[in-house]
Design a protein that fits this description.
Diaminopimelate Epimerase, Chain A, domain 1, alpha/beta, five-stranded mixed beta sheet, three-stranded antiparallel beta sheet, about 300 residues
Length: about 300
């Protein structure tokens, strides 16, 4: 009888714990670990990721921030309120201010196991280096194969490593599909491909010109006018430029990074290149050895998502 009573008591006490552990998170309930420790970038309240994976991700993210390439925040939870990961991620990482205030070089990665979905959101300053299509290919090639097997730690580490490779200027293996041979292709399809080859780059160029000239503050078209362009960093394969724009309408100053790949192999190869500027204003690292915070960056509509 005593054993039965203890068993019954244990079951009753476990119900609140089970209910609490499985609760869906609201944006304001996700812990911002960066505020308590400037060396931490991974919020993992449900233990979705292993401690080893969290340590490795934090190390990669710290290196990216130390080089002023990007500020990256990673969140992994079991469930969120609602099923719109883009809105949730955009709101969350905007409230945290991921990215430098003067360059909006933030990247937020949200993994929600219960939705079987992962989402990238990019700041304005990273959209040229990490366009939506590249984010999507990183998710599909490096992360989803692991997620389908339930190995969330390996998938998240692989995805963050791939992002770091791109930001550091390294070549990234994105694979290819050789299954289609295109034999006996109809004439109309050939002409369609030719038109796409001509029209698509032109359309992309016009779209990028519109997007790059649109002020992120007053949102007016053709508002940004470039004032300066400086070589910020040089990698083995590319040059990274820091461009400063001023809005002709509201006067806001916007800085963005662009990457230009070099065609030659005889460029200078110093010890990591020359870095210009610090970590930006706003809520930067802070002066102490523990607490930190992100830099006050903002986000547009860039990024990508993937489901499994």
């Amino acid at each position: 009888m005593k054993n039965f009573f203890l068993l019954f008591l244990g079951i009753c006490l476990s119900f609140p714990l089970i209910s609490w552990a499985g609760r869906p998170y609201r944006v304001e309930q996700i812990p911002n670990v960066q505020l308590a420790d400037r060396y931490r970038f991974t919020s993992n309240p449900d233990g979705v990721l292993s401690s080893g994976a969290v340590a490795e991700i934090d190390s990669i993210c710290y290196a990216l921030r130390h080089k002023a390439l990007a500020q990256v925040a990673v969140v992994a939870v079991e469930q969120i309120e609602g099923d719109d990961l883009f809105t949730f991620a955009h709101t969350l990482f905007s409230q945290w201010g991921v990215g430098r205030q003067d360059s909006d070089n933030g990247l937020g990665i949200l993994l929600v196991v219960g939705c079987h979905e992962v989402r990238f959101v990019t700041g304005y300053g990273l959209e040229g280096v990490l366009p939506d299509a590249l984010c999507s290919r990183i998710i599909n090639r490096y992360m989803l194969p692991y997620f389908r097997e339930g190995n969330y730690s390996a998938g998240m580490v692989a995805g963050v490593q791939a992002v770091a490779s791109v930001l550091n200027g390294s070549e990234l293996d994105l694979g290819g599909n050789d299954d289609y041979r295109g034999e006996d292709m109809p004439g109309w399809m050939i002409w369609m491909i030719i038109l796409l080859c001509i029209g698509l780059p032109l359309g992309v160029a016009m779209w990028r010109s519109y997007r790059e000239s649109r002020c992120p503050h007053c949102h007016k078209r053709h508002g940004l006018v470039q004032e300066s362009c400086h070589l910020e960093a040089r990698t083995d394969t590319s040059n990274i430029f820091l461009r400063t724009y001023r809005c002709r309408y509201c006067g806001a100053v916007v800085t963005r990074r662009t990457r230009r790949y070099r065609d030659d192999n005889h460029g200078r190869r110093g010890g990591g290149g020359m870095w210009i500027g610090g970590f930006g204003g706003g809520r930067g690292f802070g002066g102490g050895s523990f607490g930190g915070g992100f830099g006050g960056g903002s986000f547009g509509g860039g990024g990508a998502g993937g489901r499994w």
